[in-house]
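Readers of this paper often ask what the protein records in our data store actually look like. Below, we set out a record of this kind in full and without editing:
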Amino acid sequence: LADGAASAAAAPDAAPWEEGNVPPAQNEELTTRMKHLLEAIAQDNPDLAKDVVYPREAWMQTKDAQDPGKLWDSKVQSAFKKSVHRSHKRRKHMDRAKFIGFELGKNVSLVPPKKKDLKKPAWRVKRSKILFSVDDKSLSIEIAEMTAYRGAWYVTRLR
């Protein structure tokens, strides 16, 4: 899988439904973006993690909905902002959070097209984790769902 995942990341325009395409692998770029997400939660500022949110352009291309843009605004962007705020409030001393690492969820799956969901198949993974510490205590934040687009993973549901 590592070799195939690397080739998928090297060919970001390869569509997930093309034969031979595999889900993206965890890499340094993804780890950096997850660090941005922890910073956004620690500072209660979702704008610091714009690079981890599933892109609106991708949503428009892949979502089977009457108004996919409006749906992205409410289901992805607005929900992401609320989740960042809730995650910040839920834990004490987040301003002292130190990033340790990121673990991509273990159950990556190719989700088939489905009415009122996807127009085309897409790779999804659930239960990825950001690992961090606060005052030397190891903690984690679970990401509910990530979806691949053009060779990279993006958050579609934080909580």
Summary: Residues 111 and 122 are 5 Å apart (CA to CA). The chain is about 35% helix and 25% strand. Helices lie at 2-10, 28-42, 56-62, 68-90. The mean pLDDT is 86.
